[in-house]
């Protein structure tokens, strides 16, 4: 999944090096470098997209045999980085810090020291060191790549404290911990057309991702709300990873096929992972909680079920590597994806208890101690999705400026899931100002629909019925220095969690609409 720091093109670009191209680098090339400078899904995608940018710039400059450390705050680390690079070893540190505040709406919370205010500020931060080894450079094994990374997460989640949304307003919010993130080995075959990755992985850097949508900070634009809320602990996605095997086959520049089989339950805890299991007690689950068990990232749970996910990609008008010398216009590029997953585990039913009665009605029993509040367990879970990333305008073949649009939709069954349908879409302008080729401004929108099972549970328990949550985001990603990106952000959320009751002030009032401001920074050391 990782590219080595610095150049992989030019004179050094042997067949083995071509085999280690990340999915992010592949999509960036197919879309003519019109994707955001960094992809804001998680620190791993930030790192990978910055390396893909450096690779493209070095190829254009013809410096493929030189390690460029201008994008690192610590430079060449007193000669250590070039020496390690010559031996196939790279080490880098990604740092992300954010401040957030909601000016309207939200729900009171005293857990953050705000004495029950519905609004207020919050800070969250992530540090991710990564070690990568190119086995060909180190000891001659062609096409091999080893990766290990760790996370140190800190601060507080504004979504947990105040917002009560379906998904956090930032994809970088996480429980405070220091943990192993990924630990995997990838081997390429057939001159790079086939590669297999095995080990502890997160899947949200390769599957279910829109490259244009990854500009945005709201977590729904990264790993979308349906798998985040419907799978155990959100599934194998940031900041969690699971034992998995991933196969990627690229028979041509236009087609890519991917399949992965992973453990479906990174926290390793069947309970306290799905909100229906606490519904009868009035417990409001932490939307960013991933660390009930295995908080250090070494749980390696294999006891619940398997998550099987596949994706087929088609590239429309893939762009040539050298646009300046293109003989003719290749057309406006696009990437189209179809996929789905199936989870073999059992999931709690939202409507029925284990005896076939209404789970919601049981909460209204005259004697709750005698009511059956145990949900029925349903075998299996599925989701299908489609993604479109399409450039719709650019002034010339060699211009950095372009306009791209994206649409992504997911759908799944409603009896055992919190979300049954979600869609997001947006419009991005790359290089909006003269001399700001790596900046991007975007406007994105999304909607999530509470499932039929959840709505029936609400009706049976005679509480406010949840419906649709809408979110709008306006953001500007600016490269301040080669090693620092800043991103001011504004979001507005209508009907948080589809109009969930505001338990902080009463059961007959919904959480108010939210206006949220944020500032995100990303540094590469």
TrEMBL record:
It comes from the Bacteria. It holds the Pfam family OprB. Residues 45-67 have a biased composition (Basic and acidic residues). Keywords: Signal. The keyword Signal applies. InterPro entries: Carb-sel_porin_OprB (IPR007049), OprB_Porin (IPR052932), OprB_sf (IPR038673). Residues 42-67, 100-123 are annotated as: Disordered. PANTHER family: PORIN B (PTHR37944). Belongs to the OprB family. This is Carbohydrate porin.
């Amino acid at each position: 999944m990782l590219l080595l720091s610095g150049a992989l093109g030019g004179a050094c670009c042997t067949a083995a090096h071509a085999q280690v191209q990340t999915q992010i680098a592949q999509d960036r090339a197919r879309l003519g470098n019109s994707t955001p400078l960094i992809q804001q899904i998680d620190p791993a995608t930030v790192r990978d997209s910055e390396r893909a940018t450096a690779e493209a710039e070095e190829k254009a400059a013809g410096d493929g045999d030189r390690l460029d450390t201008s994008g690192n705050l610590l430079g060449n680390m007193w000669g250590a980085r070039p020496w390690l690079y010559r031996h196939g070893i790279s080490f880098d540190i990604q740092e992300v810090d954010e401040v957030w505040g909601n000016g309207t709406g939200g729900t009171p919370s005293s857990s953050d020291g705000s004495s029950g205010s519905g609004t207020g500020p919050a800070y969250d931060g992530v540090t991710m060191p990564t070690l990568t080894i190119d086995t060909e450079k180190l000891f001659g094994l062609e096409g091999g790549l080893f990766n290990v990374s760790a996370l140190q997460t800190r601060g507080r989640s504004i979504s947990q404290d105040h917002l009560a949304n379906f998904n956090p307003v930032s994809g970088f919010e996480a429980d405070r911990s220091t943990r192993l993130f990924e630990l995997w080995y990838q081997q390429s075959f057939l001159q790079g057309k086939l590669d297999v990755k095995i080990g502890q992985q997160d899947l949200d850097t390769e599957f279910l991702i829109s490259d244009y949508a990854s500009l945005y900070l709201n977590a729904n634009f990264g790993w979308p709300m349906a798998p985040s809320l419907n799978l155990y602990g959100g599934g194998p996605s940031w900041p969690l990873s699971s034992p998995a095997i991933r196969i990627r086959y690229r028979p041509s520049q236009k087609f890519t096929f991917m399949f992965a089989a992973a453990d479906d339950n990174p926290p390793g805890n069947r309970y306290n992972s799905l909100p229906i299991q606490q519904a009868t007690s009035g417990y409001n689950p932490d939307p960013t909680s991933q660390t009930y068990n295995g908080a250090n990232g070494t749980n390696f749970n294999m006891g619940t079920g398997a998550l099987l996910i596949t994706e087929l990609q088609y590239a429309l008008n893939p762009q040539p590597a050298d646009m300046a010398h293109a003989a003719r216009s290749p057309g406006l590029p696009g990437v189209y994806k179809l996929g789905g997953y199936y989870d073999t585990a059992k999931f709690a039913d939202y409507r029925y208890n284990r005896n076939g009665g209404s789970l919601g009605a049981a909460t209204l029993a005259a004697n709750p101690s005698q009511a059956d509040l145990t949900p029925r367990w349903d075998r299996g879970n599925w989701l299908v999705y489609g993604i479109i990333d399409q450039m719709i305008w650019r002034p010339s073949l060699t211009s950095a400026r372009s306009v791209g649009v994206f649409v992504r939709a997911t759908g799944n069954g409603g009896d055992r899931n919190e979300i049954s349908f979600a869609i997001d879409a947006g419009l991005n302008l790359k290089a909006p100002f003269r001399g700001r080729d790596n900046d991007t401004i975007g406007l994105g929108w999304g909607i999530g629909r509470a499932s039929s099972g959840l709505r029936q549970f609400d009706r049976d328990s005679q509480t406010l019925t949840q419906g649709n949550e809408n979110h709008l985001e306006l953001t500007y990603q600016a490269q301040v220095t080669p090693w620092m990106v800043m991103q001011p952000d504004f979001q507005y959320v209508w009907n948080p969690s589809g109009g969930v009751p505001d338990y902080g002030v009463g059961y007959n009032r919904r959480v108010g609409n939210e206006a949220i401001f944020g500032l995100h920074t990303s540094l590469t050391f």
